[in-house]
Amino acid sequence: MALALLTDYTGGQLPAGAQAAKLYAQAKQAHQDLESGAGQGAGMRGWLKFPAEYPMTEEYGRIKAAAEEIKAKAEVLLVIGIGGSYLGARAVIEAVTSRYYNETRENTPAIYFTGNTLSESDFADLDRLIEGRDFTINVISKSGKTLECAVAFRYFKARLAEKWAGDTAQINKRIYVTTDEHKGALLQEAKENGWPTFVVPTDMGGRYSVLSAVGLLPIACAGIDVDALMAGAAAAQAAYKEPGGAFGENACDDYAALRYYYYKHRRKAVELFAGYEPSMVQFGEWYKQLFGESEGKRGQGLFPGAVTFTTDLHSLGQYIQQGRRILFETVLRFEQAANGISLEEEPGDGDGLNYLAGKSLFEVNRTAFQATALAHAKGRCPSLVLALPKRDAYNIGWLIYFFEKACAISGYMIGVNPFDQDGVEKYKNYMFALLGKKGKEHNRVRAHLKRVYGLEV
Amino acid sequence: MALALLTDYTGGQLPAGAQAAKLYAQAKQAHQDLESGAGQGAGMRGWLKFPAEYPMTEEYGRIKAAAEEIKAKAEVLLVIGIGGSYLGARAVIEAVTSRYYNETRENTPAIYFTGNTLSESDFADLDRLIEGRDFTINVISKSGKTLECAVAFRYFKARLAEKWAGDTAQINKRIYVTTDEHKGALLQEAKENGWPTFVVPTDMGGRYSVLSAVGLLPIACAGIDVDALMAGAAAAQAAYKEPGGAFGENACDDYAALRYYYYKHRRKAVELFAGYEPSMVQFGEWYKQLFGESEGKRGQGLFPGAVTFTTDLHSLGQYIQQGRRILFETVLRFEQAANGISLEEEPGDGDGLNYLAGKSLFEVNRTAFQATALAHAKGRCPSLVLALPKRDAYNIGWLIYFFEKACAISGYMIGVNPFDQDGVEKYKNYMFALLGKKGKEHNRVRAHLKRVYGLEV
User: Fold this and answer.
1) Mean pLDDT of A280-299
2) ipTM above 0.90, yes or no
3) I need a labelling partner for B453 at 20 to 30 A (CA). Which of A81, A113, A373, B420 fits?
4) Model's pTM, two decimal places?
């Protein structure tokens, strides 16, 4: 078992007796509904069996080949995508390599994520970053119509055209498309120009798509062993297949049950994903989308936050220790040291650190974890601890699958469809109307905006 | 007035009548207590009059001179500090330049922030980043005893010693110290080695110190106009001096009163700082420390979060729109375009974006703001909007002072001392005991840990 869920740092805030039995039974039922397809959104469970099956497909091989091509020719890879079309790839790249990937890489392209903002300054920054460098685009969008993504793709296509003075052979060699298999504007454009295409699966939402072509192509371009990533996820798929029913039988069920307990029975409002590695910051962003977008509906859901310790103990630490008691933490701990850096003795001991000389930094960081978890539990902020052997592709693959499955079970427990996201459309509807986009549905929204807000659009 | 507080996007969730009058009167009283020193923690109000006074000091001139020296000799500046000793500088550098500062800078050193983690991997990453480059250290610590900071300083001092093969003249030219004016291990070491020193003021907490030497030296090293930064803050100091008493008289009071209203009268639990510029992400981290550490005590306080739109509309957007109604937003909007990037027309219009051709991206981003604020308000997540002319040093200085003062007033309104942070010590006490540090107080904690948790340390 690669991952262990520990409850030693909950300060006694744990379900027991009949309450515990009921909670784990509820989690088991939710798990069964997920496996059987009896739950809501059953058509969006493609991710459930994907890790074991996908590596045997023709497309998977093409992803690895395309990544080798891109690594060979590109100094910069621009990944154009928003939400699930970039968060997973960015999270895995930094988690497996470093938060300084772009500045420490060797023999792989710099990778910048765009198409996720409308900030003109960000476009101007990227113009400077691609200036004089051979750049390749991987655009990732199911329909090709998502505004941020479409705007960035049009913009950087124009930069490619400038760079290569309209030489279509050169331009077309530098565009890779990840989109719907059968339809859409982007697929059409790709076919017309001969760009290689990869599939955004129709049976999993963006936040569940990191282990498909959506995430794997950029991840492979960073030189990460995608076979190991998928093997970790596949091992988790096998390990978490059977529903539990009691604590210790299935960590996905256990985690879902305990989150539900804090949410429903301990009045917690915010779950903080906490790690002790700065290179896991982007993984926290992926986690926030996964849980926030899956559960935040119908007035429900824990608000997902993320912190990095010990860094943020000197920022949000005060609030966590003594602010409103609406928090609990899910702490990620790595069990094996990666480097073996130790503190050296210093003559004079001016800073008073000689008592640590010879101790590994890994051990000091681990002690900080223990002290923090004890202090927070004492302050009535319980920690659930996820202990993972190490920060590598295999274990990160395992962790991704663990969270995906636990999140689906958790969503069923609170009674929502964890696979939809209707709320994301609300601002888009207003935005397209305000931008003057043509179409009946936009006219309807414009009429509404005029009537309710007096907006002339 | 550089900044305007707009309430157009609150969906009617605003205080009125007698309730409003009472709230603004409470804010006025809190403001008066802050100005007069009648409030809690009055000894920590050094920041209140600092922006107007500090630029006239000898030290301020030395900071600018030191920054010129560092820019001339260093390829890399390592800033060693945790919490308030780095968040402000990092926030300002990215806000005024770019989130890609290290990759887009010209004629200024790369700047890496360390001393804020115990992750051995992060140390290993930095070893690679300083390899073969001429690096200078700015260590920022009041006492020199903060563990993360002291560990990093000892570590990178050893790297300097290796690089210069023990040539103390070369080593000593590359260390700048920001610490207590009169005492402490770090000051002592600086004196012994002839390192230039700058002062961590005793009358302001770390989270209020960005406009002192703590923040200004790294900020100046990034080539940012610190005079403009201070001028903006000084202008805000003058503008917000007089307590208000009714909406529109003093934006600090208004903001504090409205936050209090959402917290106490609308049962909001989380405040989200939202911006539309990715380069403001680190500013959000500074904001989270400022409010979280100032208010999160005695079981009180809004939990501070931060989001970047439109990016996170495809991540936390679903939760914000339809999850638990415990959120409100403080949205930062810039009023002036910076670049003038527009979308170009494309023949064929395959992506269907030609209706936007000729429109500036600035305008599209602004429309996204309007659509989002309307949609969220309709979903009962009100937005307070801070409208700031532009993203430059002057306006960021203004914004910093605005938040600092509003935060102090807000803390007084909820009845806490906004200037202390006792809770941060809890984990430290456990950690030092567990690490085997010598001392009576650590022995006491060890005895406690043994008694309560059975830990043999």
Assistant:
1) 98
2) yes
3) B420
4) 0.98
